[in-house]
Structure formats: structure tokens, C-alpha cells
Amino acid sequence: MNAPGDAPMHVVIMGAGPAGLATGHELVAHGVAVTVLERNDYVGGLCRTVHESGYRFDLGGHRWFTKNEDLNDWFRDLMEGELVMVQRISRIYYGGKYYMYPVAIGDVIKNAGLITSIQAAFSFLWAAVRYAAFNRPIRNMKDGYTAQFGSTLYEMFFRRYTEKVWGRPCEELSADWIAQRSKGLSIWTVARQALSTRKSDVESLVEEFMYPRDGYMRIPERMAEDIEGAGSRVLLNASVKGIVVHGPNDIEVAYGTPDGSGRTLRNSFETDRRSNVAVFITNTGGLFFLFAHIANKIGRDAARNEGVDTDLVGRQLERQGLGKRRHARAHHVREGQVRNRLLHR
């Protein structure tokens, strides 16, 4: 990736989450020196598996699915010998009952009752008229979910969960997230799927997926292992303190170490040769360090405290093998707090 005669490239990556490690993994495969700086004492970010009393709990209901076979081949190669196929079962806990997700028409009728089901049907038909026939624009996440499911099911299953995850009203969130998260999913696709024997191509209706036997954290761990195996570095407990741009090809990155001392990366990588340092930022907080001269204290504090608070409730089962992987979404929010409460069974 370096032209003949050019100084070798050295890329400093801020954050050892899946995005940062995947970038580093691809770069070292092409001969580029990499240093990954991670402020935590583990890699993976939110793609984390917690160990407790001999059990492993994934932090959230992660799933691997893509229609890109090149990416699937890369994933199989990365996780060779560690993958199993797992059946997907998801439930929404609402009103004291468990509802299937993706939403199933028969399940809604059974659990919600006839009156609520009729309300859901009419609200969806009205939404279809407004958004399809009258071509009403989809401006935010509320519009997106309502167009797909109607206002009744939106209020039952999507509004509260979405708002507690993101910490904002659905009217303030972009509908682009729905297009990525549940592209092609609606009452129509759910109905067609219920009447068809063919497997669905809709991502949200996937019934089986590849799963790392020891939890999803193994994905970032494997990428970190490959990066270090190629001679590059993944530094933990290395919190970035600042970035200074001295010139077009002269960047300095300062970071802290566990012993309290500070270190910098500038123009070299374990060698006296001159190299070009490039910086890859994987979180919005890093942008405030790069543009420190225009970021005020409030902005920097917000960057350091980005994210949502997460409660994880696990159930320990004495059972051999993985079987079916289940997770449920509960619609409870503590006062003054944003909670993404995932109950794993």
C-alpha cells in the first residue's frame, strides 16, 4: 500500500471495537504497521462476552448475518473451528406476555386478544393509505415503524424499546436506521412468510445464524490475535489524551498507560525509520481530541461519556450444548435512566 520510495505507513487506530480491529486486521494483511489504542482492559467494546461463575453471557443479542458471501468466507476463515449454527428465537416481553419477534400475526391475535388485533389491523391499513397511497414522507423513526406496522404495533413493540436504547424520542431519530435494521420487514412480509414454505430473504426473519462457540467477544479477540501475530500492536488501558497535527504528514498521538505515564506515537514504529502516521478514529469522542482547539469542555465531556447504560440479566442453565439461543426485550425503564434490559434464557 506504499508507493516505491515512500515512507512506510503506520496507522494508529483509536478503539479496539469490531470496526477498529477489522480495519487493523485488513491493514496488516496488506503489510501496513498498525497500533490499536484501547482505553479498556479488553477488546471488543460492546461486542463483549462476560464470564460469571463458569458461564458466558453476551452483552446484547448480537447476530452474524450478511448476504455478502465474500464477507461470510472471511468470517469463517477468521473463526475456523469455533463456529456453530444456532437457531434464533427472540421474544418481546409486553403486558406480562411474550410475543414473537419478528412479529407473527397469529401470535399477536393469541396474546393481545381480538379487540387489540382488530385495532392493529385497522391502524396498519390506515398507515398504508397515508404513507403509500398519499405518499406521506417518512421523516423519522416513528414514521418508519408506523409505515411498516401501523401505530398500534408501533406503540406496543417498538417505541419504548427504541427510545430507551437510544435515549431520545423516536420523532428525533432518523428513519435510516430502520432501513438498515429491518429492511424489507413489514406486516406484508410477515404475512407472506407465514403462508409460504420458502425461507425468507429478509434479514430480520433469519432463523439460523453462525455463532462463536465461546461468545461473540471471540470475534474481536481473534482479530486482535491476528494483528499481534503480524507484528503490530493492540495496546489495552491506553487512553488517548490528544492528537497534534504538526504538518501534512506529521501527526502525533498521545496516550496514557496503566502506570500513569504518558507516551506518544509520531513518525516511527519500533524502528528509527521515518514513517507516515495516519489516524483512524472509530468513535465520535476521538474527533474532539483531533479538533481540540474548537471543542469546548462540554463537548469533550460528552464525548468521553458517550453511550447508553445497560442492564444485563442472565439465567444460568445446567444444560449441555448451545441448543437454541433466546433473548427477550423488556419494556421497563427506570426513572431518569436509559436501560437496555436484555434477558437471556
Low-pLDDT segments, ≥5 res = 268-274, 293-300, 332-345
DSSP helix fraction? 25-40%
| Mean pLDDT metric | 76
How much beta, percentage-wise?
15-25%
The biggest beta sheet reads: 6 strands, mixed
Q: What distance lies between the first and last C-alpha atoms, to the nearest angstrom?
A: 47 Å
Q: Classify the secondary structure makeup into a structural class.
A: alpha/beta
Q: What is the C-alpha radius of gyration, as a whole number of Å?
A: 23 Å
Number of helices: 11
Number of beta strands: 15
Please tell me what the overall shape is. elongated
Q: How many independent structural domains?
A: 2
Order of helices and strands: EHEEEHEEHHHHHHEHEEEEEHHEEE
Structure report:
The chain is built from 11 helices and 15 strands. By secondary structure, the chain is an alpha/beta fold. The protein has 2 domains: 9-62 and 216-304, 3-Layer(bba) Sandwich (FAD/NAD(P)-binding domain), CATH 3.50.50.60; 88-210 and 313-344, no CATH class. Helix 1 links the parallel strand 1 (9-14) and strand 2 (33-37). Helix 3 (105-112) crosses helix 4 (114-133), helix 4 crosses helix 5 and helix 10 packs antiparallel against helix 11 (297-304). The radius of gyration is 23 Å and the shape is elongated. The two termini are 47 Å apart.
